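Anyone? Bumping this.
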Amino acid sequence: DAMVIQNPRYQVTQFGKPVTLSCSQTLNHNVMYWYQQKSSQAPKLLFHYYDKDFNNEADTPDNFQSRRPNTSFCFLDIRSPGLGDAAMYLCATSNTGDPPLHFGNGTRLTVT
Amino acid sequence: AQTVTQSQPEMSVQEAETVTLSCTYDTSESDYYLFWYKQPPSRQMILVIRQEAYKQQNATENRFSVNFQKAAKSFSLKISDSQLGDAAMYFCAYLNRDDKIIFGKGTRLHILP
């Protein structure tokens, strides 16, 4: 089945130690999104790509970066994680003008 | 900027009964999409139902239906014959012209056996 896959499902990192989360899709969608979701809150958009065009939300911290080397893969890099970055990170995909978004299972990040 | 408001942080319903979750939104766009997403405890976000703003007919998916009132900017979700598996966080969401989806804060739905 076509899907959105996030690895790993759970990630533990130390305060200040860089970490990378990955997302892959078999849907061939041109738009990919990264959301941060803290406990009992709505997902918050960090950034999204139209193909390779990167769109950063104004309030996304500089600590967060992203790469999309090809259509299928997208990475979220957290350069120096703080305790406040502990959250669930959701990857989603869609085709322009053809909703809805398809979500992965998420990666739960713990910062120790 | 668009906003989505869910005024019910939590709701409970007896199994087999009907429940309605409220959602209002604010936008100046005339063409857009609205969604209800379900997020069970396993945390994967699953689409429940979608509505195109240009369609007057309310969307229906099995036990799930919406009451879309465009002029009032209201988009409520009705769940009929509630089942234990319906217990989850429900998010109302708006898709804008930039393909960005804006979520409400969610309503946690409890199903009472």
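Late reply, but here is one note on the structure posted above: Chain B has a mean pLDDT of 93.
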